[in-house]
Design a protein that fits this description.
By secondary structure, this protein is mainly alpha-helical. The protein is built from 20 helices and no strands. The longest helix has 50 residues. The protein is globular. 51% of the residues are buried.
Length: 518
Amino acid sequence: MSPRKFAELKRAAQLKFEKERRERETMIHQPSTPELTANAARRSTAIMLGSRVAVAAMGWTGSVLIARAISPEQFGQFSLIFGLLGLLSVITDLGVGRVVLAKLVESNPWEISLVTTAFISLRIALGLLGYLLALGYVWILGYPAEVVEATAIAGLVVVVATPSHALSVMYQSRLKMTYVAVAEGAGQLAQLMATIAAVLWQPLLIILVIPAVINEMVAAVIKIRGVRKGIAGPLPASRAQFRRWREMLIEAIPLSIGFAFITLLSKIDVLMLGKLDTFDSVGLYSIGYKFADLLQIVAITVVTPVTTLLVSSWPDKLDIFRERSREAFIVLAVLGSASIAAFWPAATEVLSLLYGERFTVAETSTRLLVLGACFSMLTQLGLMVLIASGRHRTYPWVALAGLGFNIVANLVLIPRFSFNGAAIATVVTEMLLFVAIWIVVVRTVPAYNLFPAIPVVATTAIGALVTTVGTICVERFSIPWLLVSIAAPAVIAAIFVVVPISNGKTLLALIKPGGDNT
């Protein structure tokens, strides 16, 4: 073949490749309206709930293996490291994702692409900043060398997870959460397998933090594959417009400040306990968060798709906005009551079974943390209502007041009651935040009847009654705790499946997918 003929063929191949690339890009970026319906939200909720239950079960198994494989002091160090990394979401999130979501539900694909790229690049920068802050904290405060070294490795979780969450927001904007569910499940499975290997091979602190990094890396790779296929909406643009960072941060400032205060509030008790008490107390107290985190998983699963619906229906469809927020509130309230009824009577036996006899001393603190998580679920929904309606500027003041109260309460209660004092401070703070945030919602959001008062009273009363009866059955009549833990939530669910709970509808009617596509 002559050089000229070869050059012509090469040029033709390049032209064909460019043409196909432009066609694919045009197809991906063509204007389209996402399916933001109630049924789509319910599907996303069901898929994510199943995934996160599996993820929680695997994560729990890993924590049980670690707790049994290392000393109480080492488990306290392990809990402190990941408590610190969780606290860094103050820096790595800044509430920007919730603000960007409103932009991602628009129908202009090119604008979405530009916003997405700027959002991802911003979160990469925030992840790196969070990593440096984590290292600086443990080094400056003079923690043991093994804690500093383990933090250096575990901190990579922040570096990977922060931009990975930006990809999750992309999927959320299209209510295409299946890929996120698969990614989280695969990542957690990889973490569990790595944890088992570490426990069997070398159960050292610096080795046991590596599986969490593997988890985030696996999840990020799967999410990226889905984004490249166009499942999460328009592809990110090839070039980041860093000027958009300023716009995102300015819009998110009130939310960012409030979120920072709430995150500090939820994690600072662990850090204060580490300084005012012992690492052993930190480990015992942190077990309670393993159970409370299950309710947070439920809350996130329910609230995430609902937030997308609230954003898309505000302000033109107030009836839909009100209906979706009330439905979510009632579902979370019933789930919270059922969870308390299942766990409270059996707390001692569950702790002994999963973590060993030495952890049963944390029964009171664990119960209180689970109770506090029930209020936190409803507080989180109230915050999403404020965000969706653009009324979140009052939120920082509420969060600051809650943080201040929590710090003072911990300073008073931890020296007197150790980790039980920290739990008391947490549950009281969560109750006050719940009341405060919904007062703000009712007074500032111009949509009537957002707070379902009667269903709240009904679920609270029935939940308290069933929990009390269940506890008496276990403690006084020695009825098997497993039987009570199954029967108690089943009773609550059965009551609300039969008895109308809102506008003449039963719980089943509220959550059942139907012909409603609004």
